[in-house]
Amino acid sequence: MLNEKVSDLLNDQINKEMYSAYLYLDFANFYTNKGLEGYANWYTIQAKEEMDHALLMMKYLQNNDYEVTLKAIDKPDKTLVKLDDPLHEGLKHERYVTDLIHTIYEAAYEIKDFRTMKFLDWFVDEQGEEEKNATDMITKYELFGTDPKGLYMLDNEYKSRVYSAPSLTLD
Ligand code: FEO
């Protein structure tokens, strides 16, 4: 049996991950409308990864006999005007998600829920990677993105990102 507080937090996190997916689809849509298909591709794949995160949490709860309740997903609410707005909003959002994951981890740690801590280890690492990716995208944009040729090359680089399933799997 999972602890009620920990499992309720995980259930809420499903919703936050789905919101993340929705937010990144909004970013992808913004870049498509600007003619930047590479950035759009990058965020579309990011949206798929966020859905994977939600599915993993759902599966973990189900495997532990918890009845998942799916809640309404908020509308993406970031104001996107400048080409680098999504990059900054993305980093801010990932830092927020890191805090959420750490809060769940802390709740599991307090009651010695080792199973959930082990499950969350993957997400703790993943958040580190996602914050790094978001930071790198800002750095590259600042270095090259304000020049049309540089932006063209960056956009081409992001076109090459391909989706791969998460390294964590649950039966
Ligand atoms: Fe599921 Fe981007 O954290």
Could you explain how this protein is built, in words?
This protein has one domain (4-159): Ferritin (Up-down Bundle). The radius of gyration is 17 Å and the shape is elongated. Helices cover 74% and strands 0% of the residues. The chain contains five helices and no strands. Helix 2 packs parallel to helix 5 (148-159) and helix 3 packs antiparallel against helix 4 (114-145). 33% of the residues are buried. It is mainly α and 171 residues long. The structure holds MU-OXO-diiron (FEO).
Biggest β-sheet: count, sense, barrel? none
Assembly type of the chains comes to single chain
Helical content stands at over 70%
- The CATH topology assignment is Ferritin
Question: Would you tell me the structural class of the helices and strands?
Answer: mainly alpha
Residue stretches low in confidence (pLDDT < 50, at least 5 long) are none
The proportion of strand residues reads under 5%
Specify the CATH class: Mainly Alpha
Computed over alpha carbons, the radius of gyration is 17 Å
Query: Would you identify the CATH H-level superfamily?
Result: Ferritin, core subunit, four-helix bundle
Shape: elongated
How many domains make up the coordinates? 1
Q: State the end-to-end distance.
A: 18 Å
DSSP strand count: 0
The CATH architecture name reads Up-down Bundle
Query: How much is the average pLDDT?
Result: 98
Q: From N to C, what is the helix and strand string?
A: HHHHH
Number of helices: 5
- Bound ligands: MU-OXO-diiron
Provide a quick synopsis of the model.
With 171 residues, the protein is mainly α. It has a single domain, classed as Ferritin, core subunit, four-helix bundle (Ferritin, Up-down Bundle).
